[in-house]
Amino acid sequence: MAFETINVEIDDSVALITLNRPEALNALNSQLLTELSKALAEADQNDKVRCIVVTGSEKAFAAGADIKEMSEKSFVEMYLSDYFGTETDQITKTRKPIIAAVSGYALGGGCELAMMCDFIIASDTAKFGQPEINLGVIAGIGGTQRLTRAVGKAKSMDMHLTGRFMEAEEAERSGLVSRVVPAKKLKEEALSAAQKIAEKSQVSVIAAKEAVNRSFETTLAEGIQFERRLFNGLFATEDQKEGMAAFLEKREPQFRDR
Length: 258
Ligand code: CAA
Prior knowledge:
With 258 residues, the protein is of the alpha/beta class. It has helices at residues 30-45, 67-70, 75-81, 85-92, 109-116, 143-151, 153-162, 168-173, 186-198, 202-214, 220-233, 238-248, and strands at residues 6-11, 14-19, 51-55, 60-62, 98-102, 105-107, 119-123, 127-129, 165-167, 179-181. Strands 1-2-3-5-7-10 form a six-stranded mixed β-sheet, sandwiched between helices. A four-stranded mixed β-sheet has the order 4-6-8-9. Acetoacetyl-coenzyme A binds next to α2, β6 and α5.
């Protein structure tokens, strides 16, 4: 399907989705979020795709929800349309791993979109923030919840209440991003991480993603039980036999997703 606000490239087993509204620093409007959620659903269904990278431009991953689109909306319009709710729920339902490759601004909905992905690789120019407070609102697509889980209450409150930005170095130190790389290397690093994931058994990759995500939704005891059952279950796969045999035989495993 042809999209207007994003570009989708599939190379081998990695789908690269690039947000493409340069005139608005990739601000998220309804069209972009609808297209992105469709592209992710398609990538999830595409047997060729094993990992997904979502990125923006060098200047902006995304500078937030589109303020022009939202500014005149009423409470009733926002409430009845569940503004962005359907699209973002769809994005977080993606079963295959998604890496956010963030350069420049990741603000408001942009920061929230990056946090909906499974992990964030940032360039040294990245700036994260939840500046909605400056617009007389608050984060609306998960920021108060996901940022708090990522960086803890103190920094999350600071960012949501003052609207200040967090540079890449602080974001890495605080646990919001998994690695920081020079801006010129960002795409290469994210694609290389995606390629590494694509080479694993897809069964264990999806199990790992489900288990980590479960930790946000349940108690420690339930989460550990969930992990244990998935771990046990993986012993029913050919890939477990192959992975362990390859280790013992000192060779690379040939996973077949079975
Ligand atoms: N929505 C709509 N348009 C936006 C935008 C946004 N969130 N962010 C930037 N743009 C547009 C600007 O209006 C401008 O367009 P024009 O040239 O037509 O005027 C263009 O992108 C370039 O932006 P700037 O000229 O402002 O660029 P800059 O380099 O001077 O500043 C910036 C960059 C600091 C990111 C600044 O653009 C900015 O503060 N943007 C808004 C950030 C923000 O408040 N985000 C939160 C949005 S609300 C939200 O996200 C709610 C939610 O949780 C769902």
